[in-house]
Amino acid sequence: MSLTQRLASVSALHPWRVLAGWGLALVASIGAIAALLGVGPHHRCQHHDPPGLGARR
Known about the structure:
Elements: H1 3-13, H2 15-37, H3 53-56
Helix pairs in contact: 1-2
């Protein structure tokens, strides 16, 4: 039995475990992204007008 066949049979026997696993993976990835970004990209960004924009106003 191949790996994909075993994975399919286990998934068919325990669908809620599979959904819980995907949910945990999603929460963990969101947590990792939040941890890597810190507060967010906005705390370091300084929005400046590009050169020449003031002349057009």
